[in-house]
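Final report, closing paragraph on structural work. Over the funding period we assembled a curated collection of sequence-structure pairs, and we close with a single example.
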Amino acid sequence: MIKMYSLSVNKKFILTTILILFLSLVCIQSISAETEQTKSYLTLEALSDSIANIAETVGPAVVNIDTVRMVTTQFPSFEDPIFKRFFGREFEEFRRTIPQKGTGSGFIINQEGYVLTNEHVVRRADKIKVTLSDGREFDGEVIGSDVTSDMAIVKIKADHLPIVTLGNSDELRVGEIVIAIGNPYGLQQTVTMGVVSAKGRSIPTGIEGHVYKNFIQTDTAINPGNSGGPLLNIKGEVVGINTAIIPYAQGIGFAIPINMAKRNIDDLINLGKVRRSWLGVYIQEVSPEIAKQFSLPEDTMGVLVGDIIKDSPAEEAGIKRGDIITKINDEEVNSPGELQDKIRDVDIDNKANIEIMRDGKTIRFIVKIGEMPTVEEEGSEFPKEKVFSVQTGLKVEVVTSEIAKELELPWVKGLVIAEVIPGSSADDMGLQPGDVILEANRIEMSSVSEWEELINKLEPGNTLLLLVFRNHHTYYVPIKVEKID
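Its predicted structure, as stored:
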């Protein structure tokens, strides 16, 4: 009996111990889960506090910019014959000047009252009103602007102003949290948050042939009225200027990197414009097709000169169309972007050593870098008479004096593209009606018969290298010759 009782006690003790250990484990897991939840809560709370602190600190330096531009509009003619009979033809048309209003954002960069914003926010404005977060209003004056970078400086007469801190946009990482403050749709001091979606984006400006480069892409909510406002990192430093949205997309916005802006601020304040180093060449990549036409290896590195601007530093130094620039100051250049960056790094009026490849030979030039002038882009229309060439996907005709005048060409020569067949290789390469072909496979074109003779010697699949004139300069376009259907 004693042994049986002892075994029963031991069994109960073991079961009790197991139960205690199980309950202890459950309690430990519960405490651990609560600890993790507490940590997550504290992390989110810290992030929330950080963003709120940034909004409170930086917000006062963000301003609302209202503009008024006087626009002259022309109203249609009165068609009522009775009205015409009694009041005459002087009432058929009349003009009226009306105010066109706009809104945007900006931010104060120093105590002297300089506000940084987008050029398109204040473009051709007749009146500018700058409103601070505390409600104070000031008249603004544009003292410097630059269309290429979409930047402008507006000056207000005020003291004791809150200012922003400019950060380093080169240190931004994709996925990093960023914050935008601005006045979308006129709603002042709106704060939104997102991440850096990408860097180094190129987007069209709406001005033919011009592209904004190296922009920051973000999913931070940016709407009309945000333009010119700051994009901030988690430290509250300005890393970009919100400048563009894609209207047909959701959650895609763009900002000018603040490092790009910092290079231009002094010029805008002191000179009213941005001075840029200038070589005076139109350039393009050396594709395998182009390399083949120039009898070069397919992996040829460098940048092809498509055209030379008259009286430019490049022309004065002796650089020619068709040259391939391989080095700037002994540093290799493998893309148009690299070449532009290296020229930009050379101060205006300083000299640069430029190495080019011409007809298989290496030639070196010493070029005095100039200041980039302002160039206006113009479009053109195409003529009506056509000569058909199926193999290339193009319809062309000889440039006559009438066509040259219509297209505002500087000379009467070459073949004008009258039509581009949709889906052809020429269409894929971006050729357009009104483009003028000066050379085909490096042979000057002066008649349709010369064009047809050259095309008929080519086989389907061959590459045809065209030298095309558009918007006052030339560039090379390789297209595939297609089989006749």
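The mean pLDDT is 81. The two ends are 110 Å apart (CA to CA). We thank the funder for supporting this effort.
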